[in-house]
Amino acid sequence: MVHYWRLRDQMLLHTVVNNGWGVNVMHVDEGLGLIAYGTTDGGMIIHDMDRDKEVLRMGYDRVPVLSISARPNKSQLAFGNAKGMVHIVDLENMSLLRHFRAANGPVWTLLLMKESGDMVLGSLDDHITRWKINEFPPHILDKGKIDRRFQPTEAMSNGELQFARKCSVCHTLNADGKRRAGPTLFEVFGRRAGTLEGYPYSNALLNSDIVWDAESIGRLFSDGPDVVLPGTKMPIQRMKNRQDREDLISYLEQMTKPGTN
């Protein structure tokens, strides 16, 4: 939900958006009177505040929108999602200018530059990528020659590979958590959901009676966190390949034991 408040007296004027799904990212353009937002279920939506109505809705089913950026002084807006897709919208006529795969993984952050209109984005790689949108299609990615955490080598097991790609952005296997967005998975097996001391869980986790084991973690990836834990802030993702799920669970069970790391 998105609420419209009057700040001088802290009064709630009305609810602008009642989307039904979590709002991951939002941009307000006061000049155009628009609110643009991206949701956990993949919606990319623009709402006209003056007319109190949607003027554009698009999106991929169940692919979370993770980033948003508007080009200053230009009527352009970009959304980035969890599968590396970027959508650029013309705000004057509410049309899709172009959409393309910009990264081999989620687009965690992006920026439309004011003067050039180039797009800068951050994904799973440990570098920043700049696209020259006006010379489209540009050279996509700098592959580099060094090993990167999200392009692991063949020496890694499949379970470790799945952890690197699916989990390591938000979770660590070490006891300290390393300031990741999600709680550490250290000693996760046998732990009740929402009980790791010091982590600010959502109500979906705090009110859950799930105890994490091979079965419940398997359901988390087969059915999706939105099904297993309705209302969770976890990104919606599924692993359709059963062998990948089993390998990941085996890896987690081994690597989260005390004394492993």
Q: What is the gist of this entry?
A:
Helices cover 15% and strands 29% of the residues. With 261 residues, the protein is of the alpha+beta class.
Overview of this structure, please?
- By secondary structure, the chain is α+β, with helices and mostly antiparallel strands.
- The chain has two domains: 2-135, Methylamine Dehydrogenase, Chain H (7 Propeller); 158-255, Cytochrome Bc1 Complex, Chain D, domain 2, CATH 1.10.760.10.
- The chain is built from five helices and 13 strands.
- The strands form four sheets. Strands 3-4-5-6 form a four-stranded antiparallel beta sheet, with no helix packed on it. A four-stranded antiparallel beta sheet has the order 7-8-9-10, with no helix packed on it. Strands 11-12-13 form a three-stranded antiparallel beta sheet, with no helix packed on it.
- A hairpin with a 4-residue loop joins strand 5 (43-48) and strand 6 (53-59).
- The N and C termini lie far apart (41 Å).
Number of strands: 13
Proportion of residues in helical segments = 10-25%
Q: Describe the largest sheet.
A: 4 strands, antiparallel
- What form results from the Cα inertia axes? globular
Derived from helix and strand composition plus strand pairing, the structural class reads alpha+beta
Order of adjacent strands in the largest pleated sheet: 3-4-5-6
CATH class label of the largest domain: Mainly Beta
CATH topology type of the largest domain: Methylamine Dehydrogenase, Chain H
Which regions contain 5 or more consecutive residues with pLDDT less than 50? 138-147
The CATH superfamily of the largest domain turns out to be YVTN repeat-like/Quinoprotein amine dehydrogenase
Give the averaged pLDDT, no decimals: 84
Task: Estimate the strand proportion.
Answer: 25-35%
CATH architecture identity of the largest domain: 7 Propeller
**Number of domains as seen in the coordinates:** 2
Q: Distance between the terminal alpha carbons, to the nearest Å?
A: 41 Å
Instruction: Note the run of SSEs as H and E.
Output: EEEEEEEEEEEEEHHHHH
- What is the gyration radius calculated from CA atoms? 20 Å
Count of runs of 4 or more consecutive helical residues? 5
